[in-house]
Structure formats: C-alpha cells, structure tokens
Here is the input.
Amino acid sequence: MIEIKNISKSFKDKQVLFNISGKFEKGRTNLIIGASGTGKSVLLKCLVGLLEPDVGSVLFDGRDFSRANKKLTTEIRREIGMLFQGSALFDSKNVEENVKFPLDILTETPEKEKLEKVNHCLELVGLNKVNQKMPSELSGGMKKRVGIARAIVNDSKYLFCDEPNSGLDPLTAIKIDDLILELTQKLNTTTIVVTHDMNSVVEIGEYIMFLHEGKKLWEGNNKNILKTNVKELNEFVFSNKLMKKIK
Amino acid sequence: MISLLERREKFRTYFSLTINECIKIGYDSLFIVSIVSIFMGAVTTIQTAFNLVGPLIPDYVISLVVRDMTLLELSPTIIAIVFAGKVGSNIAGELGTMRITEQIDALEVMGVNSSSYLVLPKIIASLLMFPILVIISATLAIGGGYLAGVLTDVITGQEYIYGLRYEFNPFNIPFALVKSYVFAFIVASISSFQGYYTSGGALEVGKSSTNAVTNSCIAILIADYVLAQVLL
Here is the structure.
C-alpha cells in the first residue's frame, strides 16, 4: 500500500499541489484523474521520488520515502516499475535489452533465467517475436506494452503509469487498460495510473482520486463517479457528448 | 561531479559501457582526425617553406618547425576543437534527447544513479581515447608534412628527417599528453553537463549541442593558454 499525507509542492511562487492525502491499496488499480495542468504528473513525480514534496510524506508500506536515506531510497526505487507517457524505452537497446535492463543492472540473475523472465513478461503483455526489434520499429501501443513489460520484469511491488493511453487509438487504449488491470490482479501490485481518459476511469477505476487546481476534490470509484454532485468533477466527467448521453 | 561517484553500479556494467563509449568516441573519430591531421601537417610544411626562403636558413628548419608546432599546439588543440565538434555535440545531443524523452527519469525511477551511469563512462572513455587520438594525429601530421614537402620538392626526405631529430626537446611529448588529458576532460564534462541538464524539447536539445561545442572550444583555448604559461 502507498499512503500520501499532506503533500504540497510549489515551483518558485506557483503552488501546484495543496495538502493532498490518500491511500492507494495493494491489488487494485488506483487512478489519479483531472484536467491538464491540475498537478497529476507532479503528484506522480513526488510519489516516485523524481520531485521532492515541500511538505508531507509518501509511505511505501509504512516506509517514509520522502525522508528516506540514500540506501532506503534505492531500496524502494528498486521495487518500483513505471510506465512513462512516451514509454521512455532506451533508443540504443532492442526490445529484449530494454526489458532485461532492470535485471541486468539491479540483480545477479543468470543470463538464461533473465531471458526466460523477459520472454515471460513479453508474453504477459501479449508481445511475441519482437525481441530483436528496436523501439523505432514499434507502434505506439507496442512501445507501451514493452514499457509495461520492463516495469514488471523485476517483480515490482508498485506499478506507476503516467497517461498510459495518450497517443493511442481507442481500441489499443482499452487493451492497455485491460492489461494494467489484469497485471495488477495477477501480480498483486499497488498500481497507480495518472490519466484524463474517461474510458480508463470507467473501465479500471477501482479507486479514483480527482484533482482540480492542485487540490483533491473527490475520491471514490468507477461505480459512484457517475453519481457525484461535485460540480468540477461533473464538468470533467461529462465533458463529452457520449458521457452526457450515458448520464 | 560528486554525484558521478555516488551510488555506483557494478564494475562490470561500467566496464562494458566504457568499452562501448571508447569505440564511439575513439574509433569512430579516427577518420576525421586522420584527414584533419594529414592536411594540417601538409599545410604547415608548405606555409613554413613559403615563409622561410633565404640562403642562410637551412631547409631542415621546415620540419623542425612542423614538429614543434604539431606537438606543442596543432595536434592537441586543433584536434581537441575537432573532438568538441564531433564528440561533444554527440554527447550533448544524446543526453539531451534522453532527458526530454524521460529516459533519464526512467533510470532514476529504477534506482540507477543516472549521472554516474551515463556520464562517468563518457568521461573515462574520453580520457582514455583522446590522448591516443592526439598521438595518432601528431604522427599523421608529421607524415603529411613529409609527403607534402617531398612531393612538392620544397625539402628532401633526408633533410626532413634530420630536422625532425634536430634539437628535439623530449618534454614536448608529455606536455602534449597533459594538454590532451585536460582537453578530453573539458570536452566530455562540459558536453555531458549541457546535455544532462537539457529541459524542453527538440529546440533545446539543439541549443545544448551548440552550447556544448561553443563552451568547450572557449574552455579549451583558455586551458591551452594557462597550460602553456604554467608548463613551458
């Protein structure tokens, strides 16, 4: 479980996050949603340690990440898998080397075992016979899948996904959502997804935190989000005609 | 600089990364260094001959001048500027692209010290390969001077060799090597810094590459003056 307590973050004079708290349970997909520029990605960066919150703490199963020494920081980071918005695959490495990278760098696993694990993860994300392809030869959806395979290859306890559907067609986006949900349940990870995609909200939102102008305005799940009375959330959820019709 | 030495990965990892960088930085620069050096030596010979016409000045002075100019200045400094243009811009572009495409963030999230993992092998490889490039450059420049001198008939082969050996100061070689180590460190560290701290998009990556080359060239020239003042 990941718990955040009173997280605030500002850049120079501009405060981006205001006193945000919440609990992200293990084995379920936790969504952080909100319009662009509301601080979702900043919150995610605070969670994974790429940014340091000004105030507040981030607890990974009780371990305070924001005040951790270098040893504990490295220990926690090695339990984290992250899918970046643009996949962030290493250009100079092929698919197999990309997925194998965390094992190469963080473990002493024998080469044969590493390859078995890589192939297993690629199978889990539905990719076959792409081991030798370079990232530039892959489609957007395939890159995301490789990114997910790399994020889970080291038996990560915590899976973070930053806008996993951005730039994907609706069908591929749904497949990626289903994959995240399936992996979370199968591997029992604490998964946090940052998104503004309403399909994801409805499909996989087992816990949803809604941010508006850097503040947490609402939390709940995909069952009760459609019945909310929070004005800003309603505007966000029912911003398109299809969702209005569903309502 | 301190962060390069913190939270390092396994020695094996750095070894393979450094070998790869040595190939990219050293072997891949051989062609341009060779071309520049041969012509640099040839032009120095012709221009020295043109300026030293007189019955009282023996011809072997031409190769003596070529030898000293090559060792003291041309090979370390001109090749360092070529090195900044080729390798420095490449380092800054590569790291800048990795930064804006979140590849550096990906390394950090995995618990890898990205500055140490990405920058340290480049600095070590530059320190290993650039002095070798300077030695090759000096050899080719002197060879290029010989060819130009003999082929254009401004000096005979025997006189050229005699001039090369005449009153040779052995300190010129360690001096050239000290310069090459300093210049290698300047180019690799400035370019890595510019690339690693890139923020924005493709435009900023381009700016980082340009800044890497510009700042490296200025730093090389300043260091060149300081080293000459201190060591000669």
About this structure: The first strand of chain A starts at residue 2 and ends at 11. Residues 170-187 of chain A form the longest helix (18 residues). The mean pLDDT of chain A is 89. The CA atoms of residues 79 and 156 of chain A lie 5 Å apart.
